[in-house]
Design a protein that fits this description.
The chain has 309 residues and is an alpha+beta fold. The chain has 8 helices and 15 strands. β1 (20-23) and β2 form a beta hairpin. The longest helix has 14 residues, at 62-75. The protein is globular. It binds N-(5'-phosphopyridoxyl)-D-alanine.
């Protein structure tokens, strides 16, 4: 896996740190953006988030990500302190202020800070949810990892049971990604009851020897990935049949091709799973095509690639 100068492994090649945060209605220098120690996002991970890719200064599949943000908020009963309709304009302002050409916009909303630490919801009259956004530069179009392909390991899925909510409670994913990093891998695919659920921060896809794209169906077991929905559109265009079903690590080892799908790595070819070489050990032609086509559409004026849910 590629490393930056500080030795920190990177999934998305960072070229600078964000200089601005949009916090509770204001654009602030990052160093001046402060959140209370009592914020429930900090104390309980009582919040949700979104990540939207930016290519050539344009947000990719923004409506899908914002619809999922709204759903996550509804599921955990947070009323955002900002109208979600305003978000695309604010996100574009953030991109412009940061002069961001390629990278991502991160959004997070927590239940806010209450003077007393207590598990149950605080009185909404006394607590304003916290909403924060920042932008992060990164190489999406020319990610060198996409040229070589990446390694994946499998691990038990130890997460909670509402993975359809994009919760900031990500400790299991943090530990999984760290285990992958220590194993020289890019991602960990998590396994439950003998079947792959998803990656720590991506959707897991394989293409079988008889050319069927397989990925797990949606349920509370996995996130409704926006990139996954884009993959469906691209597969249809390519005439590649899709089967939404769970698959085992053994099926993945025998796959012709495999890839992860996410806003941060887009469509990332996998060449090794748990030490099993996938295909001939280089990114496969179907995955290459899917990535190229995705990037082509992402560079269009209005990159709405995902199929509606
Ligand atoms: N993660 N599954 C999980 C568990 C994820 O965290 C993600 C995204 C995905 C892919 O979703 P999408 O295609 O909408 O990005 C699947 C983001 C990128 C993150 O946490 O940084």
């Amino acid at each position: 896996m590629s490393q930056n100068t500080s030795g920190i492994p990177r999934n998305i090649a960072m070229t600078s740190i964000p200089s601005l945060a949009f916090l509770n209605g204001q654009f602030l220098p990052m160093a001046e953006a402060r959140i209370s120690v009592l914020d429930r996002g900090f104390l309980f991970a009582d919040g949700i988030y979104e990540v939207v890719a930016v290519v050539r200064g344009v947000l990719v599949d923004c409506p899908g990500h914002l619809a999922r943000l709204q759903r996550s908020l509804r599921e955990i009963r947070i009323t955002p302190p900002i109208s979600l309709d305003e978000l695309p304009t604010l996100m574009r302002e953030l991109i412009a202020r940061e002069q961001l050409d390629e990278g991502l916009v991160y959004l997070q909303c927590t239940r806010g800070a209450h003077p007393q630490r207590a598990f149950h919801f605080p009185d909404p009259a006394q607590t304003t949810p916290t909403f924060v956004m920042f932008a992060q530069r990164g190489q999406l179009l020319h990610n060198p990892l996409a040229e070589t392909g990446v390694k994946v390991i499998t691990l038990p899925d130890i997460r909670w049971r509402r993975r359809d909510i994009k919760s900031t409670a990500l400790l299991a994913s943090v530990l999984g990604k760290q285990a992958a990093t220590e194993a020289g891998a890019f991602e960990a695919w998590m396994v439950e009851d003998g079947y792959v659920t998803e990656g720590t921060s991506s959707t897991a896809c394989i293409i079988t020897a008889d050319d069927v794209l397989i990925t797990r169906p949606l349920s509370q077991d996995v996130l409704d990935s926006i990139t996954r929905r884009a993959v469906f559109r691209l597969a249809r265009e390519a005439g590649l049949p899709v089967s939404q079903r769970a698959f085992t690590p053994q099926e993945a080892y025998a796959a012709r091709e495999a890839f992860t799908a996410s806003a941060t790595a887009l469509i990332m070819p996998i060449v090794d799973i748990d030490g099993h070489r996938i295909g001939d050990g280089t990114p496969g032609p179907r995955t290459r095509w899917l990535r190229q086509r995705y990037l082509q559409l992402a560079c269009s004026e209005n990159p709405e690639i995902a199929e509606p849910s």
